[in-house]
Amino acid sequence: MAGDTKNRPVYVISVAAELVDMHPQTLRLYERKGLIRPGRSGGKTRLYSERDIEHLREIRRLTQELGVNLAGVEEVMRLQHQLDDLQDEFESEIERLEGEIEAQSQPQPLPAPGEKPDPLDRPVYVISVAAELVDMHPQTLRLYERKRLIQPGRSGGKTRLYSERDIVHLREIRRLTQELGVNLAGVEEIMRLRQELNHARDRMEGSIARIQRDITDRMTKWRELPAPPPEDEEGETA
Questions:
Q1: What is the predicted pLDDT for the residue at 22?
Q2: Which of 16, 46, 47, 231 allows an S-S link to 9, with CB 3.0 to 4.6 Å?
Q3: What domains are there in the chain, each with its CATH number?
Q4: How far apart are CA 21 and CA 50, in angstroms?
Q5: Cross-referenced Gene3D superfamilies, in alphabetical order (predicted)?
Q6: Which pTM value belongs to this model?
Q7: What is the DSSP track for 36-62?
């Protein structure tokens, strides 16, 4: 699969450093920080994959173009690794389910239909209450909305209404900016990746559910096929 090719460790550290225009010692530092995860050969030599090269270029963009500090880069790359792991998990699950279809195995149980929306997404707090809950000025919440860091709902009269999930996001933004010193550009990258991660997880669950329904339909049709007509003693169909 394409994902396997991107994960294949092929570049020694000197080649990887040259490809991303960094010093090898910088790559070692990023590894100690957990920003990249190179493989190892049998002799314990670091080997970098195409995905590692992509990550290193992204780190350079964050630090050099956006001015994101190392704490912010750590948050971004942690989320990026989660996305990578989710993609790998998705591809493995698709491969497993395709094997089930081919072997006509018993499908996994389907999710219950008509599930209710997550209560965390229900818009309930007006901006003054939300600002008090997260210890911010309402104007700060409006700024974050313009930056698309949060997306509160609207009442019929267009009043902003914040959900519990929005409150969680705002507290996380405060942690990133006040405790870790991440600039707004870094926060935007982190929140964008978190949203992408959530969407990717939803897409993965939806795709797997569709494949499982397909397995169920195939198995049902297979079971409902009419039985072949009986043969008489001379081997002729009755």
A1: 94
A2: 47
A3: 1-65 (1.10.1660.10)
A4: 15
A5: 1.10.1660.10
A6: 0.60
A7: ---EE-TT--EEB-HHHHHHHHHHHII
